[in-house]
Amino acid sequence: MNVLNQTAEYALRVMAYLATIEDDRQVRSEEISTRARVPRHYVSKVLRRLVVAGLVDSQRGRGGGFQLARPRSTIRFIDILEATDFNADDRHCAFGLQRCDPDHPCPLHPAWTELTRCVIDWASATTLSALQPDGEVPHIPPIQMGQS
Known about the structure:
By secondary structure, the protein is mainly α. It has one domain (about 5-130): Winged helix-like DNA-binding domain superfamily/Winged helix DNA-binding domain (Arc Repressor Mutant, subunit A). The chain has helices at about 5-20, 30-35, 40-50, 75-85, 110-125; strands at about 55-60, 65-70. Helix 1 (about 5-20) packs across helix 4 (about 75-85), helix 2 crosses helix 3 and helix 4 crosses helix 5 (about 110-125).
């Protein structure tokens, strides 16, 4: 089961990679795509959302690229998820019913509500500083087009 949608997962990967970069170095989208294992066609979409949310700065032109807009200790995972339109709306029915709420619950409603609450609590309390201090991203071969 994947609790997060693909865009949210990719955004977390991108931000985790950017958090490993020295503060003054700009990183090109191609490098981010390769190192964060986000397809090239998707990394631009994710970066655009992160820039609009004020989590990433971008610089065009020669020597340009992307970097965190703020210290990693101030960027919470919930900020990243919200930039990707993560919706923790408990009106969403995991069972696929049109109408599902505490007054009209589906069989999964109580468990799904608890899972959602746990994800929100974790994402609200966790910043990019929680990443491995040395933050070295292992060398991973780039993904092939058509894979995720």
